[in-house]
Task: inverse folding
């Protein structure tokens, strides 16, 4: 399952990504917000998303705010969540190959819809390399 959430800053981009994923017949659950509210707070949406991702290793999440930083910080507070903030497809690919990221953060103010879709595609279609050194590093982080 793919979960997606944002705040007001990522609201429009979130809806574009949801439409795109649905057009590709990918199961996506919108965790909010469901209407634009300029004074909403991203933790109210992205923390529940991270907890859903945490429940099953097959789950993935996409979180969006203006610069992507706040949603990254918030979701990375949840045990076994590895959120990457990405501006380009190559870096998103590397984050999956090397770090088995399970949440993708996007900076709505710094990328356009075409770039966002390319990042999402690359990230969703890249598998973890499972190289021993990458597994070892992830286990060390999980033990913190």
Result:
């Amino acid at each position: 399952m793919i979960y997606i959430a944002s705040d007001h800053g990522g609201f429009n981009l979130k809806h574009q990504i949801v439409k795109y994923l649905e057009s590709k017949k990918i199961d996506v659950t919108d965790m909010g917000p469901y209407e634009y509210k300029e004074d909403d707070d991203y933790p109210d949406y992205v923390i529940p998303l991270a907890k859903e991702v945490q429940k099953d290793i097959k789950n993935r999440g996409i979180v969006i705010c203006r610069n992507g930083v706040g949603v990254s910080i918030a979701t990375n507070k949840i045990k076994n969540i590895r959120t990457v903030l990405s501006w380009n497809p190559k870096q998103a690919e590397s984050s999956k190959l090397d770090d088995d990221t399970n949440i993708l953060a996007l900076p709505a103010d710094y990328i356009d819809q075409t770039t966002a879709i390319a990042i999402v595609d690359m990230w969703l279609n890249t598998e973890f390399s499972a190289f021993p050194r990458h597994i070892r590093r992830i286990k060390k982080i999980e033990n913190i």
Remarks:
- The chain has a mean pLDDT of 97.
- Residues 2-142 form a domain with the Ribose 5-phosphate Isomerase B; Chain: A, fold (CATH 3.40.1400.10).
- Residues 20 and 96 are 21 Å apart (CA to CA).
- Strands lie at 2-6, 28-30, 60-65, 83-85, 103-107.
